[in-house]
Amino acid sequence: xxxxxxxxxxxxxxxxxxxxxxxxxxxxxxxxxxxxxxxxxxxxxxxxxxxxxxxxxxxxxxxxxxxxxxxxxxxxxxxxxxxxxxxxxxxxxxxxxxxxxxxxxxxxxxxxxxxxxxxxxxxxxxxxxxxxxxxxxxxxxxxxxxxxxxxxxxxxxxxxxxxxxxxx
Length: 168
Description:
Layout: H1 7-24, E1 31-37, E2 42-43, E3 50-55, E4 62-73, E5 80-88, E6 94-102, E7 113-115, E8 118-130, E9 135-143, E10 150-151, E11 153-165
Antiparallel strand pairs: 1-11, 2-10, 3-9, 4-8, 4-11, 5-6, 5-9, 7-8
């Protein structure tokens, strides 16, 4: 019979070994998503949401798809949203990009999904991003429109999804 007293220490040792091996392995990134509420639904350009992401060594061999999430009211006055996106890499180098997010088509119809007067968009920023070095990355979003504050913006966010394995 398996449950004899002399097997209990052996089972405990095996369980302890398995738990310690599982605890030592760093987590892998499959999908990262975080959204930040804009205070008062008016995005002032001095309010710069940031998103911290940790890339494990085994995650550097993949391509990633990066989206910006935007949630706004129907009363949002523009068909687009310009943002400054800054990415700080583990070696503290900062990469800045001015990005236009198209939120509506030429007729003014919102591109995202909506319920009542609230619309949500997931806008592609990069579909073959590479995180070449393991470590901590910080993404920051600053609204870069002429109007300040930018009214009727409720939330902004970042979504990063692991894509295909890349050849090194």
